Amino acid sequence: MENDYLIRKKPLPALLLFSLPMVLGNLFQQLYTLADSAIVGRYVGEQALAAVGASYALTNIFICVAIGGGIGASVAVSRYFGAKEYRRMKLALYTACLAFLGVSILLGGLGLGLSRWIMEVLKTPEDVLGMSVEYLNIYFLGLPFLFLYNVFSSMFNALGKSRIPLYFLIFSSVFNVALDMVFVTRFDMGVAGAAWATLIAQGISAVLSFGVLLWELRRFPCEKPGVFSRTELMGMTRIALPSILQQSTVSIGMMLVQSVVNSFGSEALAGFSAAMRVESICIVPMTAFGNALSSYTAQNLGAKQQERVVKGYHAANKMVLASAVLICICVELLAKPLVTLFLGTDGTAAAYATGEGYLTFMGWFFCLIGFKMAVDGLLRGAGDMKMFTIANLVNLSIRVIFAVTMAPRFGIQMVWCAVPIGWFSNWLISFLEYRTGKWRKKAVAFSG
């Protein structure tokens, strides 16, 4: 079968072939928030950028829940695909889609009811609070579309079809930017226009993805699989929950320290928001390599090829190192123009100092999150989740404690000094778990 190359081709070219569409797809997905920030920052003002930025850490948590849950569910689908158990593969896939539809509706409702309270708890500056809540409420209305689209994308990746999500992301991202320009610059809808543009673009992508996914599944003939299984749901949940935590660690940490950044005022928040948008682009390849290694690991374990997993891990680290060098060069040389992209030429000195300071510091450390994502991806694909979960909790705890205790005393720079320390600690714990070889014992097919 043409999409089983992850268990046939040499590890490095197989992972490159599989992960490159994921990298491009994730870049286009980031274009949603980049377009929102750049357009409102330039055409509405610095306060509008700060409003979207104040919402970013919270909205990104929900994105990470959707991505992490989809990746966790895709481990089961990848395992069944590698073992050619197509009935169980379809049953797991349908179960995941129904479960995440329910979760997204529940979370969307909670978000709508609690959005203002959350923003107040995070000490959002008063001059941007109203716009932040307005942006969030529209965002929560579209949460089911966001969840389902990301779950569908993970299912395509589990089937070795990583190019299909890329095509939809290109379409939806371009459409989102076009709607941003119309709603914000023509209709003068402000931050609400940016939020509605994202909702509409994601909604159309989710519906189209669902249709194509059903069409692709026709290529795997089997007896009727059913549409929901509590057993499959429990098996996927054991992988999905730690995966959600891993994907959300950075965003949860940023939300918890958002109150620290907010206390420095809306100008610092605007600069920090601009830098965070750039960082979100920088970590795209690292996240994609880790997610690709999860599917690669699961498929090869399903096919009982454990040694290919080790070779794949080494290949992923080489990809991380090459990407980190390129990212470091670009960030160190282009920090100011990158911040200007969001703040425009009228940004305040405080905003520029914050944004450039964050980027020039972080540029040297993106290799750490890449190595962390790679080893986490292997453990997740093998179902070895205990130390994986502990490692990500340690990462989160370090970031929050360091920022909350040190930034009020020594300045906003302490917020980002904690980041590489957290990433390194996470990698070290996960790597030591990998070296024990316990993941090999856990590498068994899911049983019903």
Q: TL;DR of this structure?
A:
The protein is built from 16 helices and no strands.
* Class of secondary structure makeup: mainly alpha
Find the count of extended strands (DSSP E, 2+ residues).
0
Helical percentage: over 70%
Amino-to-carboxy terminus distance: 26 Å
Number of domains: 1
Q: What's the total helix number?
A: 16
List the secondary-structure elements in sequence, H or E. HHHHHHHHHHHHHHHH
Low-confidence runs: none
Coarse shape: globular
Strand content: under 5%
Radius of gyration: 21 Å
- What about the largest sheet? none
Q: How would you state the average pLDDT, rounded?
A: 83
Describe the protein.
The two termini are 26 Å apart. This protein is mainly alpha-helical. The model has no long low-confidence stretch (mean pLDDT 83). It has one domain. α1 packs antiparallel against α2, α2 runs antiparallel to α3 and α12 packs parallel to α15.
